[in-house]
């Protein structure tokens, strides 16, 4: 069997994986010393992040922080610049697989102050921590159409913008007008128009160091009954086709050009393929579902096996849509 492509490194992360554990430990301690006075209880060392993800597996964050105010963001940028601590951004954790060893650095997740939304004429503006289904619901309640596709995508608005999340042949790039961001790497804020957001299939320009703080979406007025029908259809389609009762990250692989990852995985005979507590769903071949006690290593083993079989049989290298947080071999916290 030919070798599969390497796991894609989580692109929103600066993990400096060649650094020694000692220097990483020193950087974490130095970052904690900088962040503690600024953030107080909003800085949590050793916080378990598994419960903050839809897979519900993975180890702790060496440091976890939920910025609320602009000063918090400035302190995070300062700590990163001065210490070189590895860092990553977490939204609602519905598209990530956290390593069993956790993340040996700073995990940044927008706090509650970033959960808000407001209507401005035919536009909706919302904070990056706002769940996308709630933004879709808010738009519907305001009689605005365009966001129905997001009603059952379980991410945050920030994560959805970053991933250019989509369904039913629509995606965030169809509605986003502007994005307000903060750069963790240079400590500055800016407003990015959609034309400069680099939106493409399940990706955007917001991959390295850019925290999505808020987005403005341009929508259209429509009959509220029609909007509700579209949302009900979207929910019913998911219930019928996806294993929603079991932990997963949604689609594991991106669709290759002109094909569907689920079709290839099923045609390769991988439905039901199991490693430890992780299994290719028997309901939807592009979902990996887990049992209690499953590890990130189990999920990675399933991913590797599926990729290798699809490559072997069809010559197609599946690329993961799920992003990996922390490295299983080099990171120990
Ligand atoms: P996370 O999983 O926390 O992070 C994903 C990426 O976004 C990471 O790189 C992270 O660093 C980055 N990120 C998160 N928040 C921010 C922020 N504020 N600023 C900058 N970067 C950020 N996706 C689809 O596109 N379509 C679907 O139909 C769909 N269905 C799903 C169904 C299920 C049952 C599940 C579990 C997942 C599904 N997903 C789907 C995947 C997932 O919901 C989306 O990718 C979502 O946009 C991820 O958002 P999040 O907040 O959970 O991001």
Give a short synopsis of this structure.
The chain is of the alpha+beta class and 333 residues long. Helices cover 28% and strands 22% of the residues.
Q: Name the helix and strand elements from N-terminus to C-terminus, one letter apiece.
A: HEEHEEEEEHEHEEEEEEHHEEEHE
**CA gyration radius, whole angstroms:** 20 Å
**Count of alpha/pi helices:** 7
Query: In what order do the strands lie side by side in the largest sheet?
Result: 6-7-13-11-12
Unreliably modeled segments: 1-13, 329-333
N-C termini distance: 34 Å
Please specify the SSE layout and strand pairing:
Layout: H1 21-39, E1 43-48, E2 60-65, H2 70-83, E3 87-89, E4 96-98, E5 103-108, E6 117-120, E7 123-127, H3 132-141, E8 144-145, H4 157-163, E9 166-167, E10 170-171, E11 176-183, E12 189-193, E13 210-218, E14 220-221, H5 224-241, H6 261-267, E15 274-275, E16 278-280, E17 288-290, H7 296-314, E18 323-325
Parallel strand pairs: 2-5, 3-5, 4-18
Antiparallel strand pairs: 1-2, 6-7, 7-13, 8-14, 9-10, 11-12, 11-13, 15-16, 16-17
Helix pairs in contact: 1-2
The site of flavin-adenine dinucleotide (FAD) has 36 residues, from β3, α4, β9 and β13.
Give an overview in words.
Helices cover 28% and strands 22% of the residues. It is of the alpha+beta class and 333 residues long. A five-stranded antiparallel sheet has the order 6-7-13-11-12, with helices on one face. It has a four-stranded mixed sheet with strand order 1-2-5-3, with helices on one face. Strands 15-16-17 form a three-stranded antiparallel sheet. A hairpin with a 2-residue loop joins strand 9 and strand 10. Helix 1 packs antiparallel against helix 2. It starts with 20 loop residues before the first helix and ends in an 8-residue tail after the last strand. The protein binds flavin-adenine dinucleotide. The site of flavin-adenine dinucleotide has 36 residues, from strand 3, helix 4, strand 9 and strand 13.
């Amino acid at each position: 069997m030919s070798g599969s492509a390497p796991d894609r490194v989580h692109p929103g992360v600066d993990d400096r994986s060649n650094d020694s554990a000692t220097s990483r430990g020193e950087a974490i301690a130095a970052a904690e010393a900088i962040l503690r006075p600024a953030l107080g209880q909003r800085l949590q060392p050793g916080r378990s992040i598994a419960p903050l993800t839809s897979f519900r597996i993975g180890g702790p964050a060496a440091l976890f922080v939920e910025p609320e105010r602009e000063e918090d963001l400035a302190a995070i940028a300062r700590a990163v610049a001065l210490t070189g601590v590895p860092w990553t951004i977490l939204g609602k954790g519905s598209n990530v697989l956290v390593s069993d060893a956790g993340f040996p650095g700073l995990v940044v997740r927008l706090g509650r102050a970033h959960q808000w939304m407001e209507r401005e004429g035919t536009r909706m503006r919302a904070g990056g921590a706002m769940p996308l289904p709630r933004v879709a619901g808010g738009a519907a309640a305001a009689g605005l159409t365009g966001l129905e596709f997001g009603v059952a995508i379980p991410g945050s608005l920030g994560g959805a913008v970053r991933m250019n999340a989509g369904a039913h042949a629509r995606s965030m790039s169809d509605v986003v007008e502007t994005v307000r961001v903060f750069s963790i790497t240079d400590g500055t804020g800016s407003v990015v128009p959609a034309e400069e957001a680099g939106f493409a299939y399940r990706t955007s320009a917001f991959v390295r160091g850019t925290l999505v703080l808020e987005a403005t979406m341009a929508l259209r007025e429509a009959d509220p009954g029609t909007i509700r029908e579209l949302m009900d259809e979207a929910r019913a389609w998911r219930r019928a086709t996806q294993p929603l009762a079991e932990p997963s990250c949604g689609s594991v692989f991106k669709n290759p050009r002109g094909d569907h990852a689920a079709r290839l995985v099923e045609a390769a005979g991988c439905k039901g393929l199991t490693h430890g507590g992780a299994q290719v769903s028997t309901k939807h071949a592009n979902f990996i579902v887990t049992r209690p006690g499953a590890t990130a290593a189990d999920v990675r083993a399933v991913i590797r096996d599926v990729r290798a079989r699809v490559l072997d049989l069809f010559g197609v290298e599946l690329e993961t849509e799920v992003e990996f947080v922390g490295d299983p071999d080099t990171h120990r916290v």
